[in-house]
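Figure S7 source data.
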Amino acid sequence: MTGTLRFTIDDQVATILIDRPDKLNAMTPEMADALVVAVTECNTSDAIRCVIVTGAGDRAFCAGSDITTLDAYATAWDFRNRADYCDALRACRKPVIAAVNGYALGGGLETALACDIRIASATARFAAPEIKLGWIGGGGMAAGLAHSIGMSNAAMMLLTGDMIDAERALAWGLVSEVLAPDALLPRAQEIARTIASRAPIAAETAKLNLAAAFSMPHDKAIEYERDLQAICFATDDAREGRAAFAEKRVPIFRRR
Ligand code: COA
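Tokens for the predicted coenzyme A complex:
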């Protein structure tokens, strides 16, 4: 079984490349393990302030779990308890951008949904095709879709399994921008460098806060936000931000 995940760091931006183009970047258990390792590195390295996830080649972001590996699970319970690559990405503390360069199907769509920002090439296609195979997604598909595109659109995708194109994904709010294929990665890098230039504790906290906004009751979410704001306000970086504003210079954030 070939296939790998390539992990590079450049100028505070880590890139996770799902690299198995001959199989449309379908994810094997080994690749899922490598993704967990890559996310752990992102979480622990101060040199990384933003992460990009994309696929190798020009056909696919990720066509989901490698279907041929699924027979290896002796029982549905073993399948239930497998390491889920989307859980790993969702647990990433640094902001993550999905640059969807082709098919994002099944677990590939869930991978994109586990990222904070999604942008897509005009050739991207999205689907939750598990229903055609006899099961449903298990990596956050329904929750991710319902939150990003609403119940009716989510139901359309979940119940038909049919693909939607990049324009429809944009109209439904599944992605933030659609670009020409050649412009996709440069744009992802531009967004990532912008995020990397912001105060890193504040960026990580903003991500945490956004997740809480979905899962907490409204009044609790606002209280929580105010606490997180106070924590950010107490950092050296916040003092630096105010000092730089007063001195009319670019702030130098040190993640302290
Ligand atoms: N798991 C394993 N292999 C996959 C795969 C997956 N999820 N998706 C694609 N592949 C493989 C194909 O088997 C094929 O391998 P082969 O060349 O050895 O035959 C190769 O990738 C290229 O795909 P192919 O099907 O020939 O391309 P296509 O353009 O005819 O069709 C798709 C593209 C995406 C429509 C089709 O590959 C597909 O339906 N894939 C499954 C998607 C899916 O159901 N994902 C959810 C999994 S839970």
